[in-house]
Amino acid sequence: xxxxxxxxxxxxxxxxxxxxxxxxxxxxxxxxxxxxxxxxxxxxxxxxxxxxxxxxxxxxxxxxxxxxxxxxxxxxxxxxxxxxxxxxxxxxxxxxxxxxxxxxxxxxxxxxxxxxxxxxxxxxxxxxxxxxxxxxxxxxxxxxxxxxxxxxxxxxxxxxxxxxxxxxxxxxxxxxxxxxxxxxxxxxxxxxxxxxxxxxxxxxxxxxxxxxxxxx
Length: 216
Hints:
The protein has helices at 13-24, 41-49, 75-88, 133-137, 149-152, 156-167, 180-199, and strands at residues 2-6, 30-36, 57-61, 93-97, 114-120, 140-144, 172-174. It is an alpha/beta fold. A 7-stranded parallel β-sheet has the order 3-2-4-1-5-6-7, sandwiched between helices. The longest helix has 20 residues, at 180-199.
C-alpha cells in the first residue's frame, strides 16, 4: 500500500513519517520516498533518526512546485517506489512524503492508495476553516503539534470541530508525537487502512485537483 503524506511547509510531515516508522517497522516491511524541490533534506532527517535502514529511504528532487511530482507527473515517485519494491520487496507499506505545499496539494490516485493531510496548530486556529481539497478530502486529516497549542493560543477542540465540519464525517486526528495515546491512534488507523487495502475493500479516492495556477 502506498500512503501519501501532504501538507504545508513546517507542519511536521517528516516527523509523522518518523513516528509511523517507529511504531510500525517492527511488524511491517516498510520504505519511504521523500520529495523536496532542490535537496534531500527530509530523507537525510529520516536517515539520521534511525527509523528505517537508510537504504529504504529514497529522495526525489522535484525541481519544481512540489505538487508536480505527486499529482501532475508522478513517474519519478513511481520509479522510486518500484526500485524499492524490487530491492526490498515484498513491501507492506510505502510512505510517500510530498514536499511542503499549500492547502490544495493532493496526490494522484495513480501514486497513492490513500493520503494523509497535515496541518498544525502553529499555523493558526483558523486553518481548518480555510478548506481546500487536502483538508476536506484526504483519507485522514492530522492537526499536528497539539502540545504547542498553549504557546500559540489555539483552542485544539475548536480547531478539531472546525475540521470535522469541513470534512463531512471523514476522520480528524489531533496529534502530538509527545502524546502516546494520539500516536497509538495514528498507528491503529494505518493498520486498519492496510487491512482494508489487503481485503480489497479500500477504494482510492481523489480529493480533487489543484486549484488553477501558473508556473510562468
